[in-house]
Design brief:
Elements: H1 2-11, H2 14-25, H3 33-44, H4 49-82, H5 86-108, H6 116-125, H7 130-155, H8 159-165, H9 167-188
Helix pairs in contact: 1-2, 2-3, 2-4, 3-4, 3-7, 4-6, 4-7, 5-6, 5-7, 5-9
């Protein structure tokens, strides 16, 4: 059924790209649907490639904000009830230090199965600032979708095969980037005071 929804939205052209990205980022998973639509548009109608990428960025940002605010509203209650153990407190402290890195990496790198929504939910539930969250999503989605549009315009029908052939390199690059960003955060962050 989800594939039928994605296929129907693809037929809608530019508005479909916006809606597909919005729905996918708001919590209804359509794995690879937005990436595939940006590539498909770039291959079949190169003149609309960058417009499709731009609308996909906007739709994804809005959808992510919807999921973020839903988690923020209901997450406060959940965290108050269940985050009383030492392990839960430590995870919350860790997320406040490195959580936005875990949001940034899956928004940037198109690796199937890299779970972004879990980290979006954590960001909302743990009270990450909405502006910081939005900027991180945009920092990942803008280069991702515009790079896919450029790839589709350049390689044409070979672009999807290129992405599949380079999945390992993309995965290793994401791990290296994530590790590097976490090291930078560790270097520049202020220590969190521990509560007794």
């Amino acid at each position: 059924m989800l594939r039928k929804i994605a296929a129907a939205l693809q037929l809608w052209g530019l508005p479909g790209a916006f809606l597909l990205a919005l729905i996918d980022s708001a919590g209804l998973p359509l794995p690879g649907g937005v990436d595939a639509l940006v590539l498909l548009t770039a291959v079949t109608n190169p003149n609309l490639a960058y417009q499709t990428a731009a609308l996909s960025v906007i739709g994804s940002a809005l959808g992510s904000m919807i999921l973020f605010f839903l988690a923020r509203k209901s997450g406060d209650l959940y965290v108050e009830r269940h985050a009383t153990t030492l392990r839960a407190r430590r995870f919350r402290e860790w997320f406040h230090s490195y959580g936005l890195v875990t949001v940034f990496i899956p928004t940037l790198v198109p690796i199937p199965g890299l779970p972004m929504k879990i980290f979006v939910l954590c960001a909302g539930a743990f009270g990450v600032g909405p502006l910081a969250f939005l900027l991180i999503v945009l920092a990942g989605r803008i280069p991702r979708y515009f790079a896919l549009a450029a790839l589709g315009r350049t390689l044409g029908e070979d672009s999807a095969g290129w992405v599949k052939a380079h999945t390992w390199q993309l995965s290793l690059g994401a791990l290296a980037l994530g590790a590097g960003l976490m090291m930078l955060v560790r270097l520049f962050r202020k220590p969190i005071p521990h509560q007794p």
